[in-house]
Amino acid sequence: MRKLKHLGILCFLFIGGTLMAQNGSTMVGGAEMYPSKNIVENASQSKDHTTLVAAVKAAGLVETLQGDGPFTVFAPTNAAFEKLPSGTVETLLKPENKAKLQAVLTYHVIAGNFSANDVVAAIKEADGKATFETVSGAKLYAMMEDGKVKLKDASGNVATVTIANVNQSNGVIHVIDTVVLPGK
């Protein structure tokens, strides 16, 4: 029987639909998300979050999301942004729409570190529909459906958390499949 050398080898476990490495990192968008790095450092490595990263840069929120936090970020994928009406992303990225872009992005952020267990506990405690105040000041609603956490925005759009508990040095990211909007 051959002995396997463990140097440089990461053992991966498939836990709850998420590929997780022994070192505590999680795979998102083909890249490892390290708990020792901040939200921007990790998101910048995900091929599934290039639109989000570009939007964070255009909105001038890089420094904020690299700060101490803690922050809970519901991070829409590129595919989530593609669901928006044609031209929406391009329009939001224009310098003259910076305030509107900031409002959309900060609607995806909650002050504090809310793990999936914390969100689920809040849903149960609120009899099935938890209300969170986002950094933008608007309300975001969370509920369970078919064993998955769903987020509902003020306009009735619903996002599903597809990857939970991507731990960061300054909070946690939960990947979502739809952009939520703060309303009009």
TrEMBL record:
SMART domains: FAS1. GO terms for cellular component: extracellular space. InterPro entries: Adhesion/Biosynth-related, FAS1_dom_sf, FAS1_domain. PROSITE patterns: FAS1 (PS50213). Keywords: Signal. The keyword Kinase does not apply. The keyword Signal applies. It comes from Salegentibacter agarivorans. This is Uncaracterized surface protein containing fasciclin (FAS1) repeats. Residues 1-21 form the signal peptide. Residues 36-180 form the FAS1 domain.
